[in-house]
Amino acid sequence: xxxxxxxxxxxxxxxxxxxxxxxxxxxxxxxxxxxxxxxxxxxxxxxxxxxxxxxxxxxxxxxxxxxxxxxxxxxxxxxxxxxxxxxxxxxxxxxxxxxxxxxxxxxxxxxxxxxxxxxxxxxxxxxxxxxxxxxxxxxxxxxxxxxxxxxxxxxxxxxxxxxxxxxxxxxxxxxxxxxxxxxxxxxxxxxxxxxxxxxxxxxxxxxxxxxxxxxxxxxxxxxxxxxxxxxxxx
Amino acid sequence: xxxxxxxxxxxxxxxxxxxxxxxxxxxxxxxxxxxxxxxxxxxxxxxxxxxxxxxxxxxxxxxxxxxxxxxxxxxxxxxxxxxxxxxxxxxxxxxxxxxxxxxxxxxxxxxxxxxxxxxxxxxxxxxxxxxxxxxxxxxxxxxxxxxxxxxxxxxxxxxxxxxxxxxxxxxxxxxxxxxxxxxxxxxxxxxxxxxxxxxxxxxxxxxxxxxxxxxxxxxxxxxxxxxxxxxxxxxxxxxxxxxxxxxxxxxxxxxxxx
Lengths: 234, 258
Fold this sequence. Notes:
The structure holds two protein chains of two kinds.
Chain A (H helix, E strand, L loop, with lengths): L4 H25 L5 H18 L3 H23 L2 H9 L1 H6 L5 H15 L1 H6 L1 H7 L7 H26 L6 H28 L4 H29 L3
Chain B lengths: L1 H14 L4 H7 L2 H12 L4 E11 L2 E12 L3 E5 L6 H9 L5 E7 L2 E2 L4 H7 E4 L11 H12 L8 H10 L15 H9 L9 E5 L7 H16 L3 E5 L9 E5 H7 L4
Parallel strand pairs in B: 3-8, 3-9, 6-7, 7-8
Antiparallel strand pairs in B: 1-2, 1-4, 4-5
Helix pairs in contact in B: 3-5, 6-7
């Protein structure tokens, strides 16, 4: 306490690491939580292939849109759990009362959640892109787009999660709050995959996606912190 | 070019008082600056000036004025539903739903949130203990958030705190296998690591056995003897010297009831 800045900084990163590791530990010990969004995505995509029919050209025409919408829904459905357990057991109170910067704490929580929901969906993308008949050389592009896009989806969705955490059932409300904000992600995300399939230049849409991610990382935590503070007065 | 622009922008945000809230999020140094200021001022005090709080249309605390200074303990009394928890959540900085002014070391806590947070230990009804983690992991997480020491605390000191509350044998057992009282003890182990100057404890003795209560009372008395403060609610009889009572019901009747 008496001396200098470096110690404070060490403490801050120690807190960031501790939060990240703790959340990952909790997720891995509650087996299955992290599998749910992935299984959801795989099942819905299977349903799409059954519903649309086996014609490869029809499937691949709609593939990028389908993948993005399904990934979005998968991440959104898992977001209700992001702060709820912490809210129920009082960890959230202790987090909000910490003298450490909340910005980093929220960043750690969203990142941990992305590791167990967004990342598996990205890693499994070659599998379901093959199911939808996306050309093999477009698959790395799709994975890259999802990697960036799922991060944006997590940050924006976390705003909805923080606003609804004090409600008994926030599930549908999260959807209503966050779906409009997902519109740009869907537009640029599926455009990105389409560009790869059609052989158009990739950089313009990729820059937009990266820009959205950076914007979301910088600004969403401020809104999330506001939402979490409000939840304590509910 | 771009970097220096951002640097200037950030500096401007820091210097601008009206953006203090934003800089609190982004800046590491704010917390330590505030708390060192508080330390420099010497005498710490918590002052409530005409505080009123309500919960769901009901006025619970009306025009409560109270001063707590170094070495003092206050016991908030009142029947169930009289607003004890609501008041403690306001004092801890969790709830903003109040009128009047609460100041910590002379600063309004609405502005000096970081200073209050650095000096306060709050244990509420909810223990803040994750059932899937072990007591040791739970305590380590809390320490990384709340203890700002120049060196990271060793595992030995965490184990020591757990043994103070009689949990040394369960340090690595998942918490869902422990009883309600034991889970409560994990939260109370924080008292043995804390160097905070203000303790706000909401029903700390719930689910704790008689011997445990005696030990906790000793720890709280020790805390007060070191010149710190404590605000406690409990329905049990408490044998600690230097505690004042503040009855919420009496205050409310004076103001005409709810």
